Amino acid sequence: MKPQEIETLSFKIIDNEAQGHGFGPAEWPVVRRLIHTSADFDYLNTIRFHKDAIAAGITAIRSGKPIITDTEMARSGIRKTALVPFGNRVICRISDSDVADAAKKNGTTRALEAVNRSVPEMEGGIYVVGNAPTALLRLIELIQAQKAFPALILGFPVGFVNAAESKALLLEHDIPYITNTGRKGGSNIAAGALNALIILSMDKQL
């Protein structure tokens, strides 16, 4: 089978097994993409959408705003060629030398310092967190202090230390987000959510 045939059949299987899911026509493509990426139907129950998330994401993409990721893996998984018509830059600061120097000096993580270095670029854009709870926690802190103004956070940190807690904190704030509850997540999941938004942005009927 060709790659597109495999993806189409996979989506049909997911649609069949998830009948009666209750998600709207704009939210379901995101959820389905996460299930397709992970083969994990738990996302049917754990994904959470802010009421303005889809609209905020589509507007940011169509406006050519930057997309910033916390890992190179997430950046690599984003369909950058599909963004060319919109003119979005896909940025990851995790490997920048000044980020590493700041993390060493301040005794923090590179993910946190990458958020600090990305503040000027994230205004009106999308911050994609697929690994580091410290990145998500710092984002929330800066937004609450009115020092950072992303249009949307895709918050999917994974792991056992502060992953679930950072996502729970995000849910307490009126910040446009797409996230999930619990420990699961990952850079592939975060990139999958962004890719679903890119595809929705290409739909002229939305």
TrEMBL record:
Keywords, in A-Z order: Cobalamin biosynthesis, Isomerase
InterPro entries linked to this entry: Cbl_synth_CobH/CbiC, CobH/CbiC_sf
Ranges for domain Cobalamin biosynthesis precorrin-8X methylmutase CobH/CbiC: 5-199
Superkingdom in the source lineage: Bacteria
UniProt enzyme class: isomerase
The protein's annotated pathway: Cofactor biosynthesis; adenosylcobalamin biosynthesis
GO molecular function: precorrin-8X methylmutase activity
Enzyme Commission number(s): 5.4.1.2
GO annotation (BP), single: cobalamin biosynthetic process
Family annotation (PANTHER family): COBALT-PRECORRIN-8 METHYLMUTASE
Family membership: Belongs to the CobH/CbiC family.
Protein name as catalogued: Cobalt-precorrin-8X methylmutase cobH/CbiC
Gene name in the database record: cobH
